[in-house]
Fold:
Amino acid sequence: MTNELHSFYNASLGDIIQDSLDALRWDEKNLADITGLSDKLIDKLVNNKQQITPEIAKLLSSAFSTSAEIWLNLDARYQMRKLE
Structure:
């Protein structure tokens, strides 16, 4: 047996938001309407051009029935793995 190292997929916050939207059959416009965030900001989040803030995390938590901490932690872990 060999001990091969395999690269892993570093899922970004945008990837997770998009997967969540897909699972619910929502689009970015639906999420913008539900959260009250602009379409442009949602697009930036999905495309990893906007980092999350506690306020955005709170809105996402309400939209997806999760906690704000989950969204903050997902983004923090993604950012840390990018540095490794």
Q: What stands out?
A: The helical segments are 13-24, 28-35, 39-46, 54-64, 68-83. The chain has a mean pLDDT of 92. DSSP finds five helices and no strands in the chain. The two ends are 27 Å apart (CA to CA).
